[in-house]
């Protein structure tokens, strides 16, 4: 699915990212989705976290569908699936050889730098997030915003934005 609201880039897997089972270690895959999320935010014109106020991962749900292996390119994608008052949800995908390997949803909470408590999403952050929002009803099978039969509820389906 090509969509200007979706950020995508290739990620490099290192030989040392593999574990004894011969595939990329799951913990390393979490680091890769963190990298794609940061690259997406910068590409969307947002200042990197820290320079624009603190944001933290409140929840992370990951579905590992296939192993990732060293050698073949890894296509990574990120987009926004929900926007609340103080938080937003980023959907991540890692694909290799045109196969979905990982799908993850991260709920990111915006914090007040003085108190460390959740703070409202202000402009221009809210506008940028809205520009990259893809709702479930805009999607079709195996595309952003959809759930597979039998999969647990995703964070965006539970997230009310009332943090």
Question: Short summary of the structure?
Answer:
By secondary structure, the protein is α+β, with helices and mostly antiparallel strands. The chain is built from three helices and five strands.
Structure commentary:
With 163 residues, the chain is an alpha+beta fold. The protein has one domain (7-137): Hotdog Thioesterase (Thiol Ester Dehydrase, Chain A), CATH 3.10.129.10. Helices cover 18% and strands 29% of the residues. The protein is built from 3 helices and 5 strands. The chain has helices spanning 26-43, 125-131, 155-158, and strands spanning 7-11, 55-64, 74-83, 87-96, 99-110. It has a 5-stranded antiparallel β-sheet with strand order 1-3-4-5-2. The protein is globular, with a radius of gyration of 16 Å. The relative contact order is 0.21. Residues 130-141 have a biased composition (Basic and acidic residues). This is Acyl-CoA thioesterase. Belongs to the 4-hydroxybenzoyl-CoA thioesterase family. InterPro entries: 4-hydroxybenzoyl-CoA_TE, HotDog_dom_sf. GO terms for molecular function: hydrolase activity.
What are the key terms here?
163 residues, alpha+beta, Thiol Ester Dehydrase, Chain A, disordered C terminus
Proportion of residues in helical segments: 10-25%
Weakly predicted, low-confidence segments: 143-163
CATH classification class: Alpha Beta
Let me know the number of strands: 5
**Strand numbers in spatial order across the main sheet:** 1-3-4-5-2
Q: How many domains, in number, for the residues? A: 1
Distance between the termini: 32 Å
Overall body shape: globular
Overall pLDDT score:
81
Largest sheet: 5 strands, antiparallel
Rg calculated over all Cα atoms: 16 Å
Structural class category: alpha+beta
Query: H/E series, N to C?
Result: EHEEEEHH
Enzyme class: hydrolase
EC number: 3.1.2.-
Biased composition (Basic and acidic residues): 130-141
Keywords: Hydrolase
